[in-house]
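The records we work with from here on pair a chain with its fold. These numbers are not coordinates but entries in a learned vocabulary of local backbone shapes. To see the layout at work, look at the sequence and tokens printed below:
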Amino acid sequence: MRKFFPLFAVIVLFVILALAYRPSKKFKYDVIMSSVKSSCVTDQRKNLELLNNAVSLEPSRPDAYAYRASAYIMLGFYNSANTDLSILNKQNPSRPVFYFTAASAYCYQGDYAKAMEYLQKTADRLKLRSDFLFFGVKYSAAVIRFRQGRYEDALKNLEGLDEAVQASPELLSSVNNMRAQVLFAQKKYKEAMAFSDQAVKNVKAKLASAPDTPREDAMCLLCKGKIKAYSFDDVFKVNEMIKAKLPPSKPAAKPAAKPAQKPAPKPAAKPAAQPASPAK
């Protein structure tokens, strides 16, 4: 019996260590969510399978319900999406990003009415007015209204964004470029040109400070990538489009040549002085 005791002790120790280092539910959940969040629109059925596992691992955590609702929307399973959104609302109704995830999915599907509904729910829960989520909500709403032909509403949604993204020239270029496109659609070409020129300046400022900046950034949260956070190429394209509508600028008129001045006439020579007459 004593011969087998060391072996038994080693086996017990191995089992204890294996249990101690077994990945926790939280760890597995985090790995799944990391994979889902990075996949954007690819293979939503696979995402759905992963998210079902995530919900079973941590049913009290809201992230999985938000992203599963998004996957359901992308696949057209709207009743299932509404069920998850209801659970989400009961669990954690104050987290705006969860509603933004649903808005993004509806936007991707082209259901702009639902997208705007969830963008409004996101906006109602926003506390900061200077973070990316604030930009994402306002800018997404502006792009949707522009696509719907509701130009004044598009311009209203852009209000306040200049201050919010003033430290990010690339995002500021998107705001000015969107204004330029709205005004172009309204045939206000001169006003459109002013904003487009400002967008070009924003792009040049960004590239001067960070030359390796990617030419565009299509983020998953913005309509599942269908709305770009910024695109330098789009800025230059819109600028050229507006220029084509404006009359060619006339060359500056040269100032009229001054008439040649005649040289001033020389003063007449004084007559030579006569010698004084001798006194009589």
